[in-house]
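Memo to structure team: turn this sequence into structure tokens by end of day. - J.P.
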Amino acid sequence: MRFLLFLMTALFLASCSAGLEERQLGSSSYFMKIPSDYQLINNGGEDFLLYYFAPADTSDHTKVNGGVMVGTFPAPFGPDSPDCKTAKKKGKVDGLDIEWSIYNCNGVYFMEGVTGNYGEVQIHAFGNYYKADDEAVLTEILESLRKN
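Reply from structure team:
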């Protein structure tokens, strides 16, 4: 039974990685792995990077989507409503510790975290998903961000 559970977990994780390709965030030194059928949208400014990732098929509202902001004063968005359930988990983005806040707002999930110290260059990574199983996919995408 344990072996079967291990095998199922390994297959699930392998399927999460399938189809992810590393892309450069514009001309910056940052790279991120996103699904091959996704687009990157730049919405940054002079002193910060802001990139969104989403399915290229804009009519598909069932897949994960999100973004990353790199700058000196990112701020978390927080939940949409005080009724949202919140969970926490630890991770790493670009080798830096991050604490993810995961908000479940009636079956619509939002995950975000901010690295570093206020006033220093920080990373705010965030995203939405619509099935609890997609948390692993979004985590893999957001934690793939790296500076070259």
